[in-house]
Amino acid sequence: MILRINLLLVMLAITTFGYGQQDARINFVIKNAGVNVKGTFNTYNVTQKFVTDDLEGSSFTATIQSTTINTGIKGRDKHLRKAKYFDVENYPEIRFSSTSISRFEGKLLVKGNLTIKSTTKSIEIPVEIVEEEGLKWFKGYLQIDRREYGVGKNHLIMGNTVKINLAVPYSEN
User: Fold this and answer.
1) Sign of the CA dihedral 154, 157, 163, 168?
2) Quick one: what percent of the chain has pLDDT higher than 90?
3) Among 50, 95, 96, 99, which one is least packed by beta carbons within 10 Å?
4) Terminal C-alpha separation, the chain
5) In CATH, which of 1.20.1070.10, 3.60.10.10, 2.40.128.110, 1.10.10.410 is domain 2-169?
6) Pairwise CA distance, residues 26 & 84, whole Å
7) pLDDT tens string 25-81
């Protein structure tokens, strides 16, 4: 469960691109006892500077309040806030900061640093610009290993892979 939450934090950090959380859709999934557990984080702040013709000058940053993890079950969410998982007392935020944005196989490849607890790892997020219902969106998908960030440690019934899906309104500065 905690792994899923951690992955969701990562998704939020990576995908909000300067929009309010009401506009973006960020979801995570992790297996727990063989069952998919879905979740999100309710509070985050994202800043973006995106210019199609100036990817080198474009950037994305995000800060997610780990205390706002939401899997739909309050008891599980409380458990995930404990030291073994997100340790929200000592690490109230999850952070993402892009280091580069480039074109790759018809998509954007956003590279950056994801910090969960005291661990920072370089990650890559393939992102498409998609038009739906008259609006343009950044849409992406990534997977992380919760253990690399010290979330859930060697929890035996929790999956190691957290799957993150994101959809963020497109905006060019």
Assistant:
1) negative
2) 54
3) 99
4) 37
5) 2.40.128.110
6) 24
7) 778 899 999 999 999 988 887 777 888 899 999 998 888 899 999 999 999 999 999
Residue 82: both structure tokens together: 């404990």
For residue 116, the one-letter residue type is I
Is residue 114 a contact partner of residue 124, using CB atoms and an 8 Å limit? no
Query: Per the structure block, which two tokens stand in for 165?
Result: 């899906």
Q: Is the pLDDT of residue 14 over 80?
A: no
Helices (H), 49-156: 74-80
CB 21 within 8 A of CB 44: yes
Q: How far apart are CA 25 and CA 7, in angstroms?
A: 14
The more confident residue out of 26 and 159 is: 159
